[in-house]
């Protein structure tokens, strides 16, 4: 996939050269000759990656990187620093500034393009979710996401290596900031790794007792492990094409041996941070969806969800030529509970009735609270006989076991009406019959089930 | 990026051969020897792509494809049919069955891997959104999405070619099912294409007056056009590596010249369908987010949004060392309107007040309806003087212009209280002071603005 790349360098000749190389590979290129200009562009436009020269007058690349990563509008854009120097201190400074990687001049094609492709692919993957979730997240989750994005320590790291000694070496470094598990040899049961909460997978690319590239592929091919960041450990010079392949398969970053303690920690923090950021986006989106569809008091679906669900269920019943029944239940004399013991006690009873309802239904039934003390259940594939059985079971689980109310155990009952789908029913007519049946159940003395046939 | 691929063939030897080729490229492979088994696997597991032999006993590949595409649980999985025959009729049958592409035996590496990479990349891109949105969508949007996914006609197609004659040739075919615009030569202003609602971009890969690969790259690099499907027109034999490059850059499909009418229509329909499906996912997610945060009656933000927004705004004001003011407005004697003219009229007044409020605020202010006839406005960067001016403007736009109530024009007023952030404020204390100020405004005779200093 192609991408839009911002190249930042104070030397026009460097800019032109890099532009030509990138355009030959069909990337779209924007140029900036200073850090200030680069920041301006990132705030204004969609940029997929920044290639950033470190040595610039006024504001150097580290500072530009720091500012980009501190700005909520830009922090998701990957930054690759380009420098003439390849000493470890500069590398760490760059990573600490939030850079996603480091390339040393002269920049060769293989590392350049494999890095760009890998970083932009990851960005584009999360863009959709980010644009949807970020606004909501910032308000609904308050500053939680910001806070979370600040810290890349305290993660859970799974190290997969060839020998216990190597595992111990890496673990000793990583343990200072994370919880570390070491796995020696082939990961037979990947699911186990997925189930335990893991924030980062560190894989030895030089392992021989298993195929590390195959492991990268396995992690990326399973839905459960797909979002897990992968950091591979490789050897300078020897592993260049294997590194490129690992990045192509979906590894997020690599580190070269001999492993520098500070570099490993910095790269691990970057990945753990990103993982947490992505997770907080996902959580926020999930929460938003729940807020829109779930009744906060009881955890059942809300009225809005019920209405759409009923429409869809009727359509499906028609297509599949199956039955469908609808049940409406109302707690008898609920007002007396609320008035007598207060709302808190009333709410407790509602929650309890909801829980009993949920427990007494089939997996395919959907229970909703549609208002005050009124509940409905949509029952696909249930004719009047099956629905009557479910309704009666529901009436009993409420009536048979008293509720703890104001320190006493007090009996509560519900009245239930239900209806079954007929040929020319609409949502409204089906609901209306169930409602009439409920009314009838109330009129007949409550704590009973009534069917309203067509 | 790697992916999990299901290979379906009744010949074990074919299965083994394909498995070896795919595993060499680090794809994860699952095998099935019949259509029934394949469908079972797709329903149960996460599959990223199906490579499906057409000639199988019992259920042939077309039927398997049809069933997969008819099943909401599987229809998003790309299907590539593999056949010994390459005549046009089979091709069309496959496309009509919903196949995403066709490969002819013997299947060569370049078309195989470029197709797999392109299709799985597109799938993985939309997976995240799909898994979030699909459940909600199915219920909240009812069967709209299903209906939409059924039809791939009536789309808006933009054809980009070298010559008017070629444009007319393609347009004549596509016009029978879509609205077609033809663009001859370089697309200088891509934004125009993005702004007009387009469902499909058909690009001539043999064009010489512009670089078609560059155009693919441009479309994919701009956020606005990124989701647009691209179909490239190429020449058999001559363009193989260019086709692979186009797919790599993000083209969704290709068709070979001489263009067969039915094949072009079938491929266009497939892309338009997918585009609509993706759009309906996006819309549904957007709606869900709105449902969770917007007050349905007035379109202002709701109480839940207000509460999180206030927390976030206070934190931001502290970080930036800026002012923040909070205003609470309440419609005077609203109960008389509701009781006298009914709820419908009351709702009309609420909507009208909300609209006037929105119009009288600065862009950075956020107005919310937090209950019955009560509104709040969060005003970042506003000290007590600025907030007083905004509050007074708001009071006036309500009081100065009477409301249409029951056929008459009747004057309505609001009382407004506001407070300004001080050092040790919490959400609760800031809100409480604004509330006390509102109470004071009511007590002093209504239709006025009161500040409650700390």
UniProtKB/TrEMBL annotation, chains A, B:
Annotated GO MF terms: diguanylate cyclase activity
CDD domains: GGDEF, REC_D1_PleD-like
BP terms from Gene Ontology: cell adhesion involved in single-species biofilm formation; negative regulation of bacterial-type flagellum-dependent cell motility; phosphorelay signal transduction system
Segments forming domain Response regulatory: 4-120, 156-272
GGDEF domain boundaries: 322-454
Enzyme class: transferase
GO cellular component, one term: plasma membrane
Record keywords, A-Z: Nucleotidyltransferase, Phosphoprotein, Transferase
PROSITE patterns found in the cross-reference section: GGDEF (PS50887), RESPONSE_REGULATORY (PS50110)
Stretches of the chain forming a coiled coil according to its record: none
Modified residues (4-aspartylphosphate): 53, 204
Pfam families, alphabetized: GGDEF, Response_reg
InterPro entries documented for this protein: CheY-like_superfamily, Diguanylate_Cyclase, GGDEF_dom, Nucleotide_cyclase, Rev_trsase/Diguanyl_cyclase, Sig_transdc_resp-reg_receiver
Catalytic reaction equation(s): 2 GTP = 3',3'-c-di-GMP + 2 diphosphate
Enzyme Commission (EC) number: 2.7.7.65
Record-linked NCBIfam families: GGDEF (TIGR00254), PRK09581.1 (NF007135)
Record-given protein name: diguanylate cyclase
Phylogenetic placement of the source organism: Bacteria, Pseudomonadati, Pseudomonadota, Alphaproteobacteria, Hyphomicrobiales
């Amino acid at each position: 996939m192609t991408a839009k790349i911002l190249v930042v360098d104070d030397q026009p000749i460097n800019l032109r050269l890099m532009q030509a190389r990138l355009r030959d590979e069909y990337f779209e290129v924007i140029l900036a000759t200073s850090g200030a200009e680069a920041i301006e562009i990132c705030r204004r436009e969609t940029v997929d990656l920044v290639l950033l020269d470190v040595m610039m007058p006024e504001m150097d690349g580290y500072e530009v990187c720091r500012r980009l990563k501190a700005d909520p509008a830009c922090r998701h854009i990957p930054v690759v620093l380009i420098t003439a120097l390849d000493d470890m201190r500069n590398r760490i400074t760059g990573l600490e500034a939030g850079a996603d990687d480091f390339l040393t001049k002269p920049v060769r094609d293989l590392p350049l393009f494999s890095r760009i492709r890998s970083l932009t692919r990851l960005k584009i993957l999360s863009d959709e979710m980010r644009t949807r979730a970020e606004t909501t997240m910032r308000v609904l989750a308050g500053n939680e996401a910001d806070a979370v994005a600040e810290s890349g320590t305290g993660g859970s790291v799974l190290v997969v290596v060839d020998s216990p000694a190597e595992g111990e070496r890496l673990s000793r470094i990583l343990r200072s900031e994370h919880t570390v598990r070491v796995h020696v040899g082939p990961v037979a049961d990947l699911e186990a790794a997925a189930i335990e909460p893991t924030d980062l997978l560190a894989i030895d690319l030089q392992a021989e007792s298993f195929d590390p590239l195959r492991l990268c592929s396995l992690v990326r091919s399973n839905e459960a492990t797909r979002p897990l960041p992968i950091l591979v450990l490789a050897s300078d010079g020897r592993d260049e094409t294997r590194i490129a392949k690992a990045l192509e398969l979906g590894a997020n970053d690599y580190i070269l041996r001999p492993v520098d303690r500070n570099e490993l920690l910095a790269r691990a923090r970057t990945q753990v941070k990103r993982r947490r950021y992505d997770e907080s986006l996902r959580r926020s989106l999930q929460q938003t969806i729940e807020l829109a569809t779930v009744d906060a008091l009881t955890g059942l679906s809300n009225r809005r969800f019920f209405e759409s669900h009923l429409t869809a269920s009727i359509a499906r019943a028609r297509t599949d030529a199956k039955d469908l029944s609808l049940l409406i239940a109302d707690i008898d004399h609920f007002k007396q509970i609320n008035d007598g013991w207060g709302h808190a006690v009333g709410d407790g009873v509602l929650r309890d009735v909801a829980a009993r309802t949920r427990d007494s239904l089939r997996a395919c039934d959907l229970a909703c609270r549609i208002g005050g003390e009124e509940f409905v259940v949509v029952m696909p594939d249930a004719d009047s006989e099956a629905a009557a059985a479910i309704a009666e079971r529901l009436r009993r689980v409420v009536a048979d076991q008293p509720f703890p109310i104001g320190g006493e155990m007090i009996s509560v009952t519900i009245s239930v009406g239900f209806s079954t789908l007929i040929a020319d029913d609409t949502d409204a007519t089906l609901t209306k019959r169930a409602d009439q049946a409920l009314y009838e159940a109330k009129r007949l003395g409550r704590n009973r089930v009534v069917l309203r046939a067509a």
